[in-house]
Structure prediction request, 234 residues.
Amino acid sequence: MFNNGAECGLVQIGEYGIVQARAADRERILHFLRLYFYTEEPLNVAMGGPPSAADEEDTLALLEHGLSYLVVGCDGTLLGVVLSGPVRPDEADHMEALAASCGCAKFSKLLRFLAAVERRADVWRLSGATRALSVQALAVLPAARGRGFGLSLLQRTRAAAQAAGYPLFRLDCSSCYSAQLAERLGMQCVHSLPYTQYTDVDGHPVFDIPSPHLEMRTYIQSIECSGPLWSLER
Prediction:
């Protein structure tokens, strides 16, 4: 499967490889996310049930930017996925508009929370950047965890952001596990919103998030520097 590595942008890791995700991978990525992302990501777990079609479509639309990657085995087995896309200072406005028009209460609830995080974090004022590459979904096959694949996917994405001229790399972590990866990358936590502090009009938490996940953390990292930013850690 790895014979055409130069053509598909493959980075080989022993018996595994990191390849750019393509439109042709859409269905297997969706299947993978349904099994190993939506069933474990804290906000989706708190809302219960399967993800909405609107949520899935919005996530898969990230493939068109060409900045998403897969970890695959030598037999073609999908072991990990990271999906990323560009964000700009008007991102909160965009999410609120989508929340109002998507016609899905569940997805709207999620979007309004993310818009609130966006406004409170205010990464644009803090960083001075006018665009960033943001990681939107990261998942690794349970049997393949502990091998550094999640970190390697983030490193590869960050390197792609640098090559594409993005001044800022961003990761909003709803999970304490993704926050640990962000910290291993040397990213800076610029905002934290405890889930208990995001409440409805009656003062009740909107999300009952399962332990050990306590807060939504926003991490950023400047990537306006020379030299490669990607190195394999297994």
